[in-house]
Automatic annotation (TrEMBL):
One of its GO terms (biological process) is xylan catabolic process. Transmembrane segments: none annotated. Residues 1-20 form the signal peptide. Keywords: Carbohydrate metabolism, Glycosidase, Hydrolase, Polysaccharide degradation, Signal, Xylan degradation. This is Carbohydrate binding module (Family 6). Belongs to the glycosyl hydrolase 43 family. It comes from the Bacteria. The record marks D152 as: Important for catalytic activity, responsible for pKa modulation of the active site Glu and correct orientation of both the proton donor and substrate.
Length: 307
């Protein structure tokens, strides 16, 4: 075994050779990483940027990647393609930031897309696909979720078994999820209403630590998206705004989008930058760095590791 350096962390590796530097997926563009620990491994569900020769996002499908050392990553291939989803407008290529969660042996994959108006749905909707493994393939439900209009779905199951769905659409929203994980069962609530209102807010990610619920999200403060957070003693708030835990990217990438996960005794922040596409920030790459808390539960700022 030998000591290697990945994303600013010294780790002991039993494999050789290893190349674990950011960005950690090097053979394709990836963005919006949701990291989850399933079956003792780290699974990362990003969105998949491709270059369609336009000046906007082009995202048609999803891959999932897994690792048990955060150094060597396995690409499990396409787990869902827009052509498989009946209600999606496939001309829009808008399979944006997804999430995945497990409940009672079923894996639920949540994804946003633009609806094809010919199917009777309209605008940005959220779909759910299911599988009995974390690496799919996932089978989509025939219709998008009812009562949810927006992007960037995120799910959370509390200790008491109650599940929640979070998403963005002119602010950050949340609702209770039915235990079937397919329908919301409470009126959507705006969660960031009393937070600073300047700049776009999107990409919510909820986690719990020591009884505190952390609502984290990207927010434009000056020029690009910083990562900010708010805390509460309940998954639907009210949330007290706490501030920035990753500064705006100094150059290059207007978006950031993240998830926070605890794995083998360490907290990690997964996020993205446009490392491999410096002139076009709609072709992004996912990264990981360690994240630390202060004794009072506040999140220490994470400095992106660029190599
Ligand atoms: O990847 C497309 C969009 O860009 C996501 O949905 C947003 O969160 C931003 O990262």
């Amino acid at each position: 075994s030998k000591i290697v350096f990945i994303a600013g962390i010294l780790i002991l590796s039993t494999t050789s050779p290893v190349t674990g530097q950011n960005p950690f997926i090097k053979d394709q563009f990836t963005a919006d990483p949701t990291a989850r620990v399933f079956e003792g491994k780290m699974y990362v569900y990003p969105s998949h940027d491709v270059d369609c020769g336009t000046d906007w996002f082009c995202m048609k499908d999803y891959h999932v990647f897994s690792s048990d050392d955060l150094v060597n990553w396995t690409d499990h291939g396409v787990i869902l393609h827009q052509n498989e989803v009946a209600w999606v407008d496939t001309n829009a290529n808008a399979m944006w930031a997804p999430d995945a969660i497990e409940r009672e042996g079923t894996y639920y994959f949540y994804f946003p897309a633009i609806a094809d108006t010919n199917t009777g749905f309209r605008g940005r909707k959220i779909g759910v696909a299911t599988s009995n493994t974390p690496y799919g393939p996932f089978s989509p439900e025939a219709e998008p979720m009812e009562g949810v209009d927006g992007i960037d779905p995120n799910t959370f199951i509390d200790e008491d078994g109650q599940a929640y769905l979070y998403w963005s659409g002119r602010g950050i929203w949340g609702s209770e999820l039915n235990s079937n994980m397919l329908q919301i069962e409470s009126e959507p609530e705006r969660l960031d209403e009393h937070h600073p209102q300047s700049g776009l807010r999107e990409g919510p990610f909820m986690f719990e630590r020591n009884g505190t619920y952390y609502l984290t999200y990207p927010r434009v403060i000056e020029n690009t998206e910083a990562l900010v957070y708010a805390t509460s003693d309940h998954p639907l708030g009210p949330f007290d705004y706490q501030g920035v835990f990753m500064d705006e990217h100094e150059s290059g990438c207007w978006t950031n989008h993240h998830s926070i996960v605890h794995y083998e005794g360490q907290w990690y922040l997964f996020y993205h930058h446009n490392d491999y596409s410096p002139d076009f920030d709609k072709n992004r790459s996912i990264r990981v760095d360690s994240l630390f808390f202060n004794p009072d539960g506040s999140i220490q700022k994470v400095e992106p590791t660029f190599r």
